[in-house]
């Protein structure tokens, strides 16, 4: 079905498109030499390609015909990596031969640069000679290569990736040091990047389907006082997660404080300050189970000042519930472009890649369950959501009332609502969401949302959602950017210990061997051999939201990526992008105004762990804020070394 | 700055004897002294003398030197002004042409002799000698886990302290950890507050934060508990302002807030912030009426389109004589044609921002759309 209205730029789609198709054609896009789908190319058997002059030599030749470079100059090098190089070759999946030769040439430059000419030539040559069946899905290798790219921060990352692959297990590995700027880490300390393609172990892959429920991270967002915490509390209570006794206790305490109506919200807002003020300040996490999913509820604050916390929670989300207050006046206040949070939340959620949205129109009891009110809201908000980039099909509209428990876990009992609404109730809607795709086969990456040091046991635990890969007790992890290596002592999910945590799981990891001062919210846990790069100078592709002040060179903004935030400064506006085609339309514009998309460079005050969006989505999404408003959202296109 | 003797001709040569009183005056001196001028002051020099026995003896001698300035260096952290140049006055210990580095100190007079006292220099001199009250505002910019203590002076903003801690979130049983970490953070900020903020110098102290960080209450409670006189006496001089974050650039919002604005509206800092805000507003509403960058501003000036000129003092200081003259002419002609020229101190938050925006910007009288096509 063709999209009827297309006014705005779609955040996620546009980026995905670029990265899938442009890499082969556009010489400007570098670092994306690896397309995400493995294209199994048969390499011509019986020939090997000389790394220097790219001439295809016959199998029988021991040295290149044209340039004379030996194929296997140092025999003792072959032993330890012969098997591994084999696998690498097969993931040379770019279809065009030109790509191959192009990287060859570039690689040559790098060889000369590094002075490991012969070794590289040798490795590559041996790899081409032994083409065997791939033992691992080529997906990982390509992804690993991508992470390898960032490690070196090379301009010509496409080439370096090839080189990485080729140089597995050889002494050249030590010479190629990643040049990331790390907090408290020198170059030599960083563990050198393993060239072996990442191979997920058997325990990481999920067991047979159906035995375990999928995890779904659900963010609850909306304007302040729309009823998010109350809704979550209600759901938890109805599904039996909160005992009756607990509920009574909350009710009693709430009444004492004079906040009787907040009784359900208190299930999520646990700190005394939140209860006293009647708001949520940080993201409240709770768990419940539906028919198809283990749902992790991320109850976000709605208040304008706490949007950085909301961003922290929303980066973990797979789907979202946007809660709207249906009462007269409140809805209008919520969608107000400058003061309301409904719009800003919807835009932020969209920019984090969430494409499935449930709009819960709450407090319907106040408006007497009127259909007209529901329709007006749906129409007004629907137009806006379409502008944001949500497809009509993936948005579900549910009228409900959290206070009166209507239409939450079972069809509504109220006659007025039943007369005109026959759609699914909230729990059904949650069940009908599509399961998100999980990157289990990539090396483990877990952005740390929170660090808790338990007073009694003195253990340090990191809480967050695994963006990719898997962990289990005993695995070694590397904390970036501090560089500490620790071991996983135990994993906890939903206050229950669990053995394995996979991508998409929201867990609490108890670490051993990591000092409390070396790990902070905003850090990233990763595999020791596949460290996540850090950067201070990044290039971004952003979309400027409306209602914000213009961005000029020198604008000072706050940079948010996964859970980390830093003060940042725009140093260069590289070009404007045409929203329809996505190509550069104007070089070095003077300033950026609302609704424009552009490529710009920012310099941060401190280094953060980040990755290009094409390599790791969770670490590549950014939002820029200034003066209490979100000014722009975008993705990282390049990490720049200084 | 106390001007002791003034002996100059407008747009001509002359000399001025002055005594710097506080660190702001050193900043003014930094702006006044340019390479090519000569400065005479009392200084200490290590002199080598041949002793009778043949060994060399180094002696520190206090003498009056006049040097021709080659380089001026302002040390922000130590607030010291160093002038390096060649000696031009005949002296028994120091030869003419020998290099020497003078340190301008507070409460010590020095004489500045310039070849040309242009209007800008006279402006600076006038400002320096103005005994008007200094802005002096102490600002505590906070957010959960991060705090900056800044001193906004007449012509410069200095960061006195920066405190950063990691505060864990509250997840169930770990709430106690949150509270204790927060208290420790507040304690640190309180200590820094007491150490750096001297109520006899500053007019008022501003506590600025997003949402609401319970620091103010904590401050008052602790003051009561520990009987901290300075805070108790000046309770009324502590104001609360809302900002969007605790990062340094939020200082703009602090200076914009109405209750703070009232206190400092007559000072340069406030005017600068307002002028820059106007520029950004114009840039967002009608981009053709605002321009930045030396080329654009020049073109706009040729067409007599400049209504308000914003320029940082950085540009004057580092430029050679030709460029400096050009900028001075620019400023004078803008003023002459009925516009206003604001010279931003690059040590202030707004000046820093303008400096990152190439250092020169203008709000125009009428829109000039074809500026877009001219290369910057």
UniProtKB/TrEMBL annotation, chain A:
Annotated spans, Disordered: 75-200
Species, as recorded: Punica granatum
Purpose of the protein: This protein promotes the GTP-dependent binding of aminoacyl-tRNA to the A-site of ribosomes during protein biosynthesis.
Protein family according to the UniProt entry: Belongs to the TRAFAC class translation factor GTPase superfamily. Classic translation factor GTPase family. EF-Tu/EF-1A subfamily.
Transmembrane segments: none
Primary location group: cytoplasm
UniProt-recorded name of the protein: Elongation factor 1-alpha isoform X3
Assigned keywords, A-Z: Cytoplasm, Elongation factor, GTP-binding, Metal-binding, Methylation, Nucleotide-binding, Protein biosynthesis, Zinc, Zinc-finger
Compositionally biased residues, Low complexity: 87-98, 125-146
Lineage: Eukaryota, Viridiplantae, Streptophyta, Embryophyta, Tracheophyta
Ranges for domain RanBP2-type: 44-73
Superkingdom of origin: Eukaryota
One GO location term (cellular component): cytoplasm
Subcellular location: Cytoplasm
TrEMBL record, chain B:
InterPro entries in the record: eFR1_2_sf, eRF1_2, eRF1_3, eRF1_Pelota-like_N, Pelota/DOM34_N, Pelota_N, Ribosomal_eL30-like_sf, TF_pelota
Record organism: Punica granatum
eRF1/Pelota-like N-terminal domain ranges (all copies): 1-130
Keywords in alphabetical order: Cytoplasm, Metal-binding, Nucleus
Functional description taken from the UniProt entry: Component of the Pelota-HBS1L complex, a complex that recognizes stalled ribosomes and triggers the No-Go Decay (NGD) pathway. In the Pelota-HBS1L complex, pelo recognizes ribosomes stalled at the 3' end of an mRNA and engages stalled ribosomes by destabilizing mRNA in the mRNA channel. Following ribosome-binding, the Pelota-HBS1L complex promotes the disassembly of stalled ribosomes, followed by degradation of damaged mRNAs as part of the NGD pathway.
Cell compartment(s), UniProt: Cytoplasm; Nucleus
Any one Gene Ontology BP term: RNA surveillance
Gene (name only): LOC116211878
Highest taxon listed in the record's lineage: Eukaryota
Protein name: Protein pelota homolog
UniProt family annotation: Belongs to the eukaryotic release factor 1 family. Pelota subfamily.
PANTHER family for this protein: PELOTA, PROTEIN PELOTA HOMOLOG
Essential cofactor(s): a divalent metal cation
GO molecular function, one term: metal ion binding
SUPFAM superfamilies named in the record: Dom34/Pelota N-terminal domain-like, L30e-like, Translational machinery components
UniProt GO cellular component terms: cytoplasm; nucleus
Source organism phylogeny: Eukaryota, Viridiplantae, Streptophyta, Embryophyta, Tracheophyta
